[in-house]
Fold this protein.
Amino acid sequence: MSKIKFAVVGCGHIGKRHAEMIQRNVESELVALVDVKDKEALQVDTFKVPLYHSIDQMLAHHPDVDVVNIASPNGFHAAQAMQCLEANKHVVIEKPMALTKNDAEKVIFKALHQQKQVFAVMQNRYSPPSVWIKEMVSQHKLGKVYMVQLNCYWNRDDRYYKAGSWHGDKQLDGGTLFTQFSHFVDIMYWLFGDIQNIQARLNDFNHSKLTDFEDSGFVSFDFVNGGMGSINYSTSVWDKNLESSMTIIAENGSVKIGGQYMNEVEYCHVKDYVMPKLEPTNPGNDYGAYKGSAQNHHYVIENVVDVLKGRATITTNALEGLKVVDIIERIYNV
């Protein structure tokens, strides 16, 4: 069986994670890396593949690459995806797939014309609590959903927003909901659908010298499918992450999924239901002083391989990636 050939654009923490998972997959082959920095600065010698300083350069040397994984700063995602699709390559786009709905639509339009796949990375869907609650909602075990509260309280200080980094730059980062909490917005959309009647209060408590945007917000809305919801978030938590949690109040019971990255079921009391024992969630991605979303990128690579070999459908398709961008953009535009 032929291996799927991958290249990774962007060699930061997440790009290296993509590269590592590609090399661990027996049906995948990492053929190239792309980054504007040199190998010495990036510390990518362990991958033993060529490093190029542009996508054009990489494509010229590897015309047979099948998939390009885009793990560059957020503001580059859409343009780089367009470039790779134009070259007739499938693309895997780290969250968010774009910083505007309009740019996300352009990516989808180009993919349809090129007959290529776009995979939006939302690896938290693979965590056992996420898989479990998706099944609960899909099988209507909770009945009508009344209220959903999403709380995301993390620490991001000068250890994260370092001078010269793209983090905190409005054009490259996009904002707190895009970079820190889009995984959890995705889970909410995946479970309960689109939102409307959005109201938002945003504030910048202690990041005015670190970022170009808010660090905290209260957002309330109605679900199109019924029920009401809220997102309460902050990166102003002192010293370390507090929690990422989702509380669901429904007709037949209540559920709370909590932990630092929604990695454990803290409460489940549902009519005529016994909570099963779930597998433990993988630990969060390590960013030095920080933990981020769960280390599930191997599932992402497995899904890409399975789809391209005709064995599965996409776990997070481009339209779902677009909807997350759309919801966040609408919150910011209130």
